[in-house]
Amino acid sequence: MRGRILRVVSAFAAVAALGLLVNAGALRADDDRNNDGNKGNKNDDGGSRPGQTIPPQTLPQGFESHSDLAHDADQSPHAAQYSAWVVESSRFMDVPFRSFMPDRGDRPTVNLPVNLGIIKAKNGDITLYDSGWKQLSYIYDWQFPSCCWHPIRMQMTKIGLNPDKVKRIVVGHAHWDHAGQLSEFPDAILYIQKEELKQIDFFLSYPLQFNDGHIHAVNTVERHSFHSRQELVNGGGTVQGGGTVQPPPSQACARSPVCGYPPQTLQEIFGKVMGGKAQIVDGRHVVDDGLIIHPAFRGHTYGSQLLQVNTSIGQLVFGSDTYSSWEGIRDWNVANIQQTDTVQQMLAYEKCYALTSMSAGSYNNCIAAHEPKSYSTDYPITSNWWNIGLPVAGGVPTGNCSRAAELVLSNGEATHVPAVPNRVYCENRVPPPHTPYEK
Predict the structure, then answer these.
(1) Ramachandran region, residue 130 (left: φ > 0; alpha: ψ -120 to 50; beta: rest)
(2) Which of 38, 222, 402, 428 is buried deepest, with most CB atoms within 10 A?
(3) 160: number of Cβ within 10 Å
(4) Which alpha helices (H) appear in 159-219, and where do they start and end?
(5) What is the CA radius of gyration of the chain?
(6) Nearest in space to 64 (alpha carbons), one of 289, 232, 305, 258
């Protein structure tokens, strides 16, 4: 009996001690939202309330409170509106489903589109969200079987949009399949997060000691043949030309910190930066009236970012690989885990729910980069889709089986969907002409 009483007293003492710790702030999330040493003041928007203060291990510039997001969700009726489409840059075929969504795996393999967004303003100016693939050798020689790649400028022309009107490109992150055709738009301004560039620089210069080069491994270059980003972009290093090319199958960088940043992609990104054609942003950023970048750091990569677009049907939120799967957002399943903190991916999902909370479509307005059900009624926002280009001999459309979907029209924009859209599923796995073993 005495032992039992002691245990009860000890339990109450522990609870009391925990209360003291909480009251003292030891177990709270960081109240200093602005990282300025002033905790809990009016500028910190809510003291220690969850949802209003920075979660643990979150960068201040990557945090947006619930009230911040609610404010952005409620756009002024006078805010600019945009029309929007997605096009399929290419298609990964026969991907093991559990490598994409480890908590689902409804079937053994899945085909994944690589979607990019096209956003048109009232004056005709175009913003791209992501720019798709360029490195054809990697698509067709190194990776899973692939299908349907078509140059982005041709895709835009075939759906009735002028590629010369592209003024800016917001990349959700800088991986090869999302930042691969930047040089097709030499005058467009690239919008990229500072944290994304910092990740690339830091890990491509990471020492080989203790890890045999696995931490700085990229997809197409032998991991012992370079030591810095400069060697990859500028040539030189251990082997002249920026590292020894690793032939197929891929060098298996898996989910290492710079997997997905091969040399050709870096040349395109840093070409924009060094050429004065980049806007390096640090957290939330208003691109233009009705266009807002939201940070999603470590939602897929260190510097992932979302793009909120004001339209006639409310807010769309483009998410690149942070929003790899629309079903993942709907069902709160992680997807396409790369340089990802799954907590941050969940918080990025919440941002979409918050930003679309005033829109009738709610989370249906979240635009996913690799949703397998894209271009079907199963993913409602993409249901108004068609195969790009007219069919030619053999039934393959001139857009090489790539697809487009019209998401929303604003400002009196006429539809770009053909009068008789071709919606017969097709795939073409024959590689276009390309240079083998390119980096």
Answers:
(1) left
(2) 402
(3) 13
(4) 194-204
(5) 23
(6) 305
Full-model pTM: 0.89
Residue 215's pLDDT is 93
Pairwise CA distance, residues 150 & 269, whole Å: 21
Q: Residue 18 has what pLDDT?
A: 42
Nearest to 82 by CA among 170, 173, 179, 150: 170
Tell me, what amino acid is at 331?
D
**CA 114/CA 275 separation, integer angstroms:** 27
DSSP 77-105: TTS---EEEEEEEEEEEEEEHHHH-TTT-
Show the domains of the chain with their CATH numbers.
Answer: 83-408 (3.60.15.10)
- Please, how many CA atoms are within 13 Å of residue 58, restricted to the half-sphere of its CB? 28
Q: Which residues of 293-330 are buried (b: 16+ CB within 10 A; e: fewer)?
A: bbbbbbbbbbbbbbbbbbbebbbbbbbbbbbbbbbbbe
What one-character-per-residue DSSP string does 327-360 give? Answer: HHHHHT---S-SS--HHHHHHHHHHHHHHTTTST
pLDDT score of 141: 78
- Distance between CA atoms of residues 173 and 305, nearest Å: 7
How many whole angstroms separate alpha carbon 403 and alpha carbon 410? 21
Alpha-carbon distance of 147 to 150, in angstroms, equals 9
311 sits in which H/E element? strand 305-311
CB count within 10 Å of CB 77 equals 5
3-state helix, strand, coil in the chain (%, to 5): 30, 20, 50
Q: 263-274 and 194-204 helices cross at what angle (nearest 10)?
A: 130
Q: Which helix (H) or strand (E) holds 9?
A: helix 2-24
**Residue 7: its pLDDT value, please?**
54
